[in-house]
Structure formats: C-alpha cells, structure tokens
Write the structure tokens for this entry.
Amino acid sequence: MRALTEIAPGVLVATSSYDVTTTTVVVGSSGGCLVIDPAVTVAELTGLAGELAAMGLRPAAGWSTHPHWDHVLWSRELGDAPRYAAPSAITVAQTSRDGILDGVRRAAPGHDLELVGRLRSLDAAAIPWDGPEARLVVHDGHAPGHGAVFLPGSGVLVAGDMCSDIEIPLLDTVAADPLGDYRTGMERLASLPGVRQVVPGHGHVGDAGELRRRLGLDRAYLDAVAAGKPAADPRLTAASPQWLRTAHEQQVRYFQR
Ligand SMILES: [Zn+2]
C-alpha cells in the first residue's frame, strides 16, 4: 500500500495509524531526500523505507521537530543519514531519554531503541543538505527547541506539534513562561511569508486559509485558558482522545494556580 502522498512538487506526506502523526519527505537531488519526523510504528517505518527505495530515494538527512518520543524515531532500513534537531531539543532528548524510551515501548513497541533520539545538534538557519532550501524556525512553547521547517520553494510549512486541526495548543508547562513561549513561537510561524500549505505533526494538511483558521483557534484557546474561562474549542469534544482532554484539564489547572 502506498502511504506517501505528494502535497506539492517534491514534498510527500504519510500519515500514521497512531494519533494521525505525519511524516514529511522532501525530495532532493540525485536520489537523496530529507525525512522529517518519521512516524510511528515499526511496520510504518519499514513501509516508508521500502516506499522510498521503490521511488529511487534514500534519506540524505533527517530532522526531528522536537524531543517527544513520537518525533525522534528511525529505523535501520532508513539508513545512516545524519539526523538533526535544534540544540535545546537535543538537551531535552538527552535529559529525558528514559521517558522517551518509555513512550516508544508503550505505544510503538519493537523499535530499535539504540536509534531512538540519536540526533545531532544543529544550530543553523537551514538544514544542510543537497536539496530544496529547508529553513528552520526554532522556538520554544510546545517543547524546548521546537523546530518547524519552512520550504520556501514550495510554500510548505512543516509545523511539528503546532498548527493542528485536531489538537489544542499543548504547552510546555515546566518552562518558566509557557504561555509567552507558545505565543512567540506561534506568531513567528504566523508571520512567515509565502506559506501555501501547512503540515501539522498530528492532523491534516491545510492551505493558507486553514492555517489562519487554526492560528485563530489557537489564540482564542490560549486567551480563554489563561483568563480562566472555559475554552469552547472545536478540537476539544467528547470524541477527543482521553489524553488530549487530560492535557487540557492540566493546562486549565496550570493557569488557575
Ligand atoms: Zn509533541
């Protein structure tokens, strides 16, 4: 079964069975590709590697948008390309390695844990690789060193765990200023010129209008919880997964302190 869908010339997205998690592949020159957040199950990563090989592509670089377990995966079949993340994401990937491995064991068993979170620190404006310019927008908010990738050539914004149509903003509540960090990151993404499509880490690809709609929902949600008001967010319903409702309740409690 073909999992990758071309959303723009040379930009392909696959969606995992786990939590609507996306993998983005950017096609480079001479058979190389950039793989962002390969996700999630062992079978899906094996399938991804097979599909890339069938297309004559091999990963030339990897990028993890942030140090949460479902965004730092890899498989032997994807090869030994350098895998990068922003410096503060690397720090967290190291200090919270036990929690990351627990998450993998629990929700995506069978991965080679040696490969989980094996990332190189990259402090740069763009990912160094032989392919379309992949600009980095590094900010805090959802997680330290969260790094969105903007592809100016195709107008695709790979937003990591921001700008979702199915998840409310999820704050890093152990940070000194969770709300300020999140708003700063969100507004940096909002102010990027030339975004034509957004790929959230969890959810569905949207166009520029849809990105604006999601950012509007995010601002309204944050304003409400920060003011201690009920957040009537369409992404939060009785049908939402329990973990998302729990995260919302924790955020409400955080601002009530
Ligand atoms: Zn996350």
